[in-house]
Amino acid sequence: MLPVRTTKLMSPLLKTLGAVASRAWLDARGIDPRDEIGWFVEVELRADDPSARFELNLYPEEWGFVFRLHKRWSSIRITDLPFVHGLDELKLLDHTPRLDQLAAFLTKLENDHTFRFDHDGATVRTNLDEGATTAAVRTWLNSR
Question: What are phi and psi of 143, to 5 degrees?
Answer without folding.
Answer: -95, 5
